[in-house]
Amino acid sequence: MGPLVVDCFRCDRLAACRHYISQGNGAAEPAILFVGQNPGDQEDMDKQGRPFIGRAGQLAKYLCEAADVPRADVRWVNAVRCHSPSNAKPTTTEVENCHDYLLDEITATHPGCIVALGETAFHSLYLLPRHRQALHRYEQGALADWQRECQRIQALTDHAVADWEASVLNWQAAGGKKGTGEAKPLKPKPQTKPKVPKKPVKEKMSMTSVAGVTLFQPETGIPLIVTYHPSWIMRGKWDKADLVTAHYKKAYRIGSGEQAAEGQLGDYHVIQTLSDLIRLRDYLLSDEVEKIYFDTETIGPEDKRTDGTNWMRAELLCISLAGKAGEGWVVPILQQGGETCEWWHGLYKQVIAILKEIFGCDKPKEGQNLLFDLAILEREADWPFIDAETAFGIKVNGYLEDTELKHQMVAETLPHNMTSVLAMHTDMPFYEEEIHHLSQGKKRMDLVPNEITWKYSGADADGLPRIDGVLEPIIVEEGTDFVLEEIAQPLLRLCWNMQKRGVPIDIEYFGRLCQFYALQVDRVEQELYDCVPDYDWFQYDRLATEKKRAAGKKVKDKNYDDKTPKYLYPPVLQDLLFRHLALPVPDRKTKGGRNCEPCRLGICFDHIETGKDALKDIKSAMGPNAHLILDILLELKALVKVRGTYLDGGKGGWKIHIRDDDRIHPTVQVSRVETGRLAFKRPSIQNPPKGIHIHPKPTMCGGKPCPYVYDEAFGIDTTNAFRDIIAAPEGYGIMNVDWNQLEVWVLAYKLRDQFGDRTLLDVLESGLDIHTFAARNMFPAIDPELADHEWRRAHGDLRDKAKVFVFGCVPMDTQALTPSGWKTYGQLEKGDPVYAYDPGIRQLVVTPIEEKVYYEEADLVRLQNRSFDVMVTPNHRWYSRRRTSDGKTKRYEEGYRHTYDLSTEDNLIVAAPATDTGEQLLLSKEESELLGWYYGDGWSQGAISICQTKPEGVERIRHLLRSMGYAYAEYPPRANGNYSWRLTARSSRALSRKAQLDDGLETLVLRMTSAQRKAFLAGLLGADGSKNGRAWVLTQNEGSVLEAGRLAMFLEGAFPTSSLNDTRGNMPNYKVRASKPVVTGQKLRQIPAGRAPVWCIKTKYGSWVMRQGDCITITGNTNYGLTIPGTMERLHCTEEEAKDLMSRWLRVCPGLPKYFAYIRKMVMEEGYVDDRFLRRRHTGSVDLLRQMGERNELEGLVRECFNMPIQAGGSDLHSYVSVATDQYEPLINRDVGAIFSVHDSLTFLFPWPDNDAAVEIAWLIKNLWQKLAWNMPTPEGERLHWKTVCEVEWGRTWGTPKFRLNSRGVLENLKEEATT
To answer: How far is CA 316 from CA 186, 319, 606, 941, 1131, in A?
Structure first.
């Protein structure tokens, strides 16, 4: 048994709060000693001091069961024996204080293997003793040598001084003095002492970098495995349970003696002569070697040595090769520090020629993260985007294989780096320890001595066949060899081709866009400073400086006059928002705040989050009294983020990635996404903001100015600002090819092939009414002999009930409110921002469209009362507060209800105040109000003019003009008492530019903050209406002012109702009243309104804002993924009834229930699901989730697996087709090349001499894709025979295509459609 720890008071903080000291528990001589962090709440209250009895300990024991580790063979202990306040992580000092107890426990029990669970245990067991040993070596070695040298120098100095003093005495005795001719002996100069040797610093080795690796505990020599703490898995990392289980298995094999602690490294040789290199070539090209394994080591360029993973700039240190396990041959190119290898002077051409022979042979080549090695070898020095000198153009031929991709086939959710894979699947010793220490975690390979670099490189090459030998049998056994060999690995060559082709950038346009957004940031910055003029933006920095001085540190005085405030730096925002402005503190804390006691007491603000979500929480808590600075900060954060990500802000955005060829060459990540989709980094180019309009002058839509961003200075004219950055060079075009509803077709074929159900295919191909089809399958016994159209007329009520399980829609003339104005169905795309109602904060927010649907024909009803009039489908949804009563008290139940389910007790929420979003204006309240008076009673003929008769209006306008400082003239009143004012031309232009009036009045209203809008309404209603509290009335002629007034009222939380006031003038005159933001169901009628095409969108809040005629209202959106609880809520039925209806609805596709049941069974029983091409998603954590009672996590895993076969199947088809397209000779001969891929689309750069050539290329690709989908081979050796269709779009830029070859093969002119 381990020694007991009693009455320890080494740590004041822990001793003051603990209840009991934790002891070791378990086997007396264990195979594994598990070492955790410190006791939790439950362990702290255990009188026996047992560790791991809480929930995390329970999971650890379940993991042991999963790893077949007997509980009788393990022992449990903690690195720190005492509970810490608030479960805080123990400090370094506390870990060091407890280390001796842990060492006594290890010595007494002598386990076969130690498992360190988490960072604290890793620090105590490995880093701390290594640092102590390094200090001991330092004290006994370098420091002792220095002390001896200092003593020697001191002795010599003392001896020289004694000799000098004796000589001076002799000189004086001989009568020596000044002027006698004999010089006085010179005093010897003291010898310089050597510098004190540097004290060893603590190693910066993270636990994650060595997880699963076999280390050895420095003080005892016992094998040590480092892995993750069970509590880390419980924080949403359940898919990593397989990784931890594998580490437990390895530890038990070592601890029980079944496996040696580590195997042996191979024989590694450094090639130093041409004859050695020739012998290596002959060996690798001989029949003895079937596959060549290789790896490269690189360093960053001289100006940034840490940039060794940038394939365009990194220098090649060496190449390592192997033909089998146990060997490694290293060919140095450069030496330590980046110097030319000394023995290759004058021989480089011969060396490269021999290497080209090796890599040019047809034998398969395999590497780890092969795409990087491929780029390093094949790049050429004369390419304009290559800066490296060691670019030799070594062509790598033969079939390409990647151990990273192979590991993805067998363990897609686990790390694929070489260290982790070797540790999990082989007994190869950990050979990276010195590299980690010397190279700052492999970031500075130039600091590593040559011999260590070469050994490390040779071991990398040796590790490849070892991994290959383990993974290949697993891949064949699981049947994933088809998707690996036919899809995943062939994708490597396409990815490399896309990398080197690059993505073309319109440099001139990009520069103007950068300048435009820089001005937007400057504008909002100034708004921020103006909002808090009395705040010292350097206060935090001054306080931090004073703290350092008080601590005795040397601090230079700073000149703040030339410094820019860090206005988004969290400590600055914490000081500004919570100390200076005393705003409400959100319930969001940073990682450090979880264990900060002052934060718990509300007296510390240093750990309060200040991100976007935190600011929104503060704004929600303050309601209508929210401080203006919150909106300014939110806008500023959004601008800074978009500028830093896609333009030239922050760390450089896209700008720093543009090379000398005016292209971005992003790095493709082949194995990042579990479903096989490609991802891009450095930079990510797949998802720039979509649909951002910027125009140099007002654009007209339907006779009215479109509400787009107005740019006066730079002449930007675009409907897709960020995506138009990607633009073809002169004579070329950008062509995008995209599958149509690929995942729907994949599901349809899955149901047909696996369950014999053609229903979904038939529906998709036949164009039947899906509502009637669904209803007839839900109620098959009702009039089965009737034709579809007859059944629909006879049983419209059942059809309407079936609609609940499909979609709810609105007519085609309905418009949706976006930050840039009202838009119709054709102007909206998935991902575009729209306004929606957030029930949580009871405000309108801007959110992206998640789905968009369209139906050619649907039944409509007119929902109408005296002030409300819209047309929707019967199953369309509304957010309602329904009155209920138990006979004593009235209550309200809030939620979405369908139109047909509305009752007299419902109150529809039709309006709410909007949060300040989008581009805002630098307008004062006075200027905003003056604009209201101008639009109500003013005109412009070269200058802004306003007239007014009401005495209170006259005085108000005078006050506004005087307070703003604009130059103006006031004219005497006319006979009717009408005063008038006229701003000078210069003042008019200044105000017009400031308000961006040329963009249109509705745009002005949308860009205003709430305070500005209220001031604008005050002026507008003062001129043409009345305002008494919330009773707003506007009287205006039909036109833009009337529409802007309606919109402003709506955005301020009122429901604008219109009535015709006067028709005697040239234009009808309307009266708009601001009504309550609810419509009661008492007099709400539902009138059948025929059939028409309909559409709808989906947002995450379940709502959006629509306009039909004069009616602006919040409305519900289309509902997907209906579940049994959702059915109960929407149809107000019992669970049994909901189950019955759901089962009936699933008969729309009889194979669908079978599919769901099949997936659930595979997840629960087999531990994986797969797609059509046998790509797998493993689900090994199912048993753990069951044992731990994590029902939500388990169901989430099942839902994820419902989607995986569909998404992965579509992705695999797309990858196969993309590879074949890149190798298609007719396209290669036409200089057509893929440049990047986004989800299920592929984008090309193509020559565009005329549109006939473009159409020819579009047809080539379209026909090729559809033929490939039909003829693609399957794992069973058959043909796929899928009829999936695609469409092709092209133009000069990626964001604004001009032509489309649609899925039906019809050529469309998108420019003409946009104009129409």
So the answer is: 58, 8, 45, 70, 67
For the record, the structure tokens of 1147 come out as: 């008969």
CB-facing half-sphere around the CA of 1034: CA atoms within 13 A = 34
Rg (CA), the chain: 37
DSSP structure class, residue 726: B
Secondary structure class of 1117 (helix, strand, coil): coil
For every residue of 654-698, DSSP letters joined together read: TGGGB-TTSEE-PEEESSSSTTS--EEESS--S-------EESS-
Place of tokens 């036409």: 1230
How do the residues of the chain divide into helix, strand and coil, expressed in percent and rounded to 5?
A: 45, 20, 35
Q: Are 436 and 500 in contact (CB under 8 A)?
A: no
Q: Are 364 and 401 in contact (CB under 8 A)?
A: yes
Residue 1140's beta-bridge partner residues? none
Q: By the 8 A CB rule, do 491 and 1218 touch? A: yes
Give the whole-angstrom CA distance, residue 441 versus residue 431.
13
- Please identify every stretch of the chain with a pLDDT value under 50, giving residue numbers as ranges: 701-704, 806-808, 1063-1064, 1066, 1119-1122, 1313-1316
Alpha helices in 967-1119 (DSSP H): 985-995, 1001-1007, 1010-1024, 1040-1051
- pLDDT tens digits for 600-656? 666 678 888 888 888 988 888 888 888 999 999 999 998 999 999 999 988 889 999
Q: How many helices (H) and strands (E) does the chain have?
A: 43, 50
Rounded to 10°, the helix 925-937/1010-1024 angle is 30
Q: What is the tens place of the pLDDT at every residue in 863-910?
A: 888 788 888 887 788 888 887 765 556 677 788 888 877 887 888 999
Structure tokens at 339: 């110097």
Place of tokens 């005393």: 582
| Alpha helices in 1230-1271, H assignment, sequence order | 1251-1271
For residues 809 and 1091, is the Cβ–Cβ distance under 8 A?
no
Place of tokens 């290559």: 386
What pLDDT is stored for residue 901 in this prediction? 75
| CB 1261 within 8 Å of CB 737 | yes
Facing residues of 894 across strands? 881
Rounded Cα–Cα distance for residues 1015 and 994 (Å): 16
In contact, 816 and 1113? CB cutoff 8 Å:
no
- Tell the residue number behind the tokens 């986004």, with chain if given: 1238
| Nearest CA among 1029, 1076, 1036, 1084 for reference residue 1057 | 1076
Q: What angle do CA 106, 110, 112 make, to 5 degrees?
A: 115
Q: Residue 179 has what pLDDT?
A: 58
Question: How far does the chain reach from its first CA to its final CA, in angstroms?
Answer: 86
Tokens matching residue 873: 């489908």
Question: Pick from 685, 667, 647: which is nearest to 1295 by CA?
Answer: 685
Question: What is the longest distance spanned by two Cα atoms in the chain?
Answer: 143
Nearest C-alpha neighbor of 309 from the set 373, 395, 356: 373
Nearest CA to 1258 out of 1283, 1288, 1299 is that of: 1288
Beta bridge partners of 320: 295, 330
Q: Give the pair of three-digit tokens for residue 556.
A: 């230079």
Q: How far is CA 759 from CA 738, 750, 1139, in A?
A: 25, 11, 22
Strands 1176-1178 and 1168-1170, bridge-based pairing: antiparallel
**What are the residue ranges of helices labelled H in 756-892?**
759-766, 770-778, 788-794, 796-803
Backbone phi and psi for residue 167, each to the nearest 5 degrees, phi listed first: -65, -35
Angle between helices 241-255 and 55-66 (to 10 degrees): 70
Q: Please report the pLDDT score of residue 809 as a whole number.
A: 65
Tokens (6 digits) for 263: 């195997």
Instruction: Provide the token pair at 115.
Output: 């498992």
Those residues with Cβ within 8 angstroms of residue 758's Cβ, 6 or more apart along the chain or in another chain: 751, 752
295 close to 461: Cβ distance less than 8 angstroms: yes
